[in-house]
Give the backbone structure.
Amino acid sequence: MLDRLINIFFLFSLVFIFILSATAEDHLRIGIALILSLICAFLAFIMNWLTLDGLTSAVLFGLIAYGLGGILGAVVVLAFFISSSLLSKDMISEESLLDKKFRRDGLQVWSNGFWFALWVIIWFLTKQDAFLVAGVASMAFATADTWASEIGGHRLKGKTFLITNLKNVNPGTDGGISLIGSLASLLGAFFIGGIFWLIQPESGIRSFLLVSLIGFIGSFIDSWIGAKFQGLNFNEKLREIFAHQITYVDNNMVNWMASGSSSTLALLIFLILGY
């Protein structure tokens, strides 16, 4: 239900932009983006990487990424999604690379993509680079967090400590951090930062470092939020008003909060330091 409300929000935003703000060149790119997003999302659905709701969300996400964000937006999103899918132990069985076990739904698409989509829309309307940097930083965080979880939590397990008190915990524990996971997080963040710098070199090394370091820091923010709040239920009164997904702090909610926090931090640093 919640993912469908988000889909409606972004769909109306796109319609508004297409009619009132986009140029003829933008119209052409948005049209191409729609076709490419449909093809990519449908292939992901056929490969069992997406549910039907996930397919709808992915089409809208891809439409915003390339239609409004251009080549940079499209490549950053594809780099995150493909690398995360290939690394995920839940998406690919250990017995066979062709045996898929897990499909992302709409909420999982938006838990990592909501802030990127929002910042790109604001950037498209304002042409202020700070919002584009914030959007790419959110993807740097998403990549860093996924690489840390999959490599440090499942692939190359090492000593894991709870971020709040540094006590030993099992790999994969909510809020757990490890040396291997932290190194994987750093590599994931700089992977996206490097793509940003490669495609848009005029952004400069400071923006590259800002995106990369915020992505890395964001993975620790995610661990702290996970340790403190994941699994909690809010007051029953709130659940009478809001959807269950909003009042229960699951992994999707943790990712969404950490992505918003880290990308907002990147935005503020960019504005304060006058990049």
The chain has one domain: 2-273. Strands lie at 160-162, 168-169, 176-178.
